[in-house]
Design brief:
Helix content: 25-40%
Number of strands: 6
Largest sheet: 6 strands, mixed
Distance between the termini: 45 Å
Radius of gyration: 17 Å
Number of helices: 6
Shape: globular
Length: 162
């Protein structure tokens, strides 16, 4: 895993990053606020947000990001109760590929190792720790399954409450 806090104040290492967002936006104002938060990182966010809402799918955004981070967008999603999943590719000699996700009910974001396509994976050492900790294969599969971007719900819009 990478130590983002130490990296945020240094020269950038831009890597391909994919963010998937879903959940219920509460009113048109929340749609505009999501567009503003996402546009800070992704150039076509306006079109992508509106397209996801129209199609009834989760929102997927992709572009180069500094160390694969989108901290203000992550914070926006948490504040508005939107599930998010962010995956980044490796920067050889700097950090490995990985992913981080959050959904309502989690105390804090969860970070996992990932392959270059953003799918959750586990190293041999981590697998051995799981085994030594008494976890079952079914528990491991469930754990890694929660880190899959396909679990992000569709983005939808609730009517403004008057």
């Amino acid at each position: 895993m990478r130590d983002r806090r130490a990296q945020e104040g240094t020269m950038g290492e831009y890597v391909m990053t994919t963010v998937t967002i879903g959940g219920v936006l509460k009113g048109q104002g929340a749609v505009e606020a999501l567009i503003a938060a996402a546009t800070a990182y992704f150039a076509d966010a306006d079109l992508d947000v509106r397209d996801a809402l129209t199609r009834g799918t989760s929102l997927t955004l992709e572009a180069l990001q500094n160390f694969g981070n989108t901290p203000d967008l992550d914070a926006f999603c948490r504040t508005h109760g939107l599930t998010w999943h962010r995956a980044w590719v490796a920067r050889v000699g700097q950090f490995g590929a990985g992913l981080e996700y959050w959904r309502p009910g989690l105390e804090r974001p969860v970070e996992e190792a990932a392959d270059e396509a953003g799918a959750p994976m586990m190293t041999w050492a981590a697998l051995r720790r799981w085994h030594q900790g008494g976890q079952t294969l079914a528990e491991l599969i469930d754990h890694l399954g929660q880190a899959d971007a396909a679990t992000v719900p569709p983005l939808s819009l609730a009517a403004d409450s008057a």
